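Much of the work behind modern protein science is quiet bookkeeping, done one molecule at a time. Below is the pair of lines this work produces for a single protein:

***
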Amino acid sequence: MKVTTYEATVENGQVKILGPATLPERARVFVVAPDVESAPPLLHARSPRFVNREGARDFVKEVFEEGPDDGP
């Protein structure tokens, strides 16, 4: 595998190569950031929500307690 190195900066979340570079569209590249602490992840997993609150009725639970005469 042939490897070419380009110097670049990040501006507004996009990698900008400094100087002339001709890369084909959809080229596979590797980004190495020396002496940079990684930023916290931008992903935040939220709890699922109902589109219509009426759907919550399908998930109502009933609790039954077993008496002393109820067995397995």
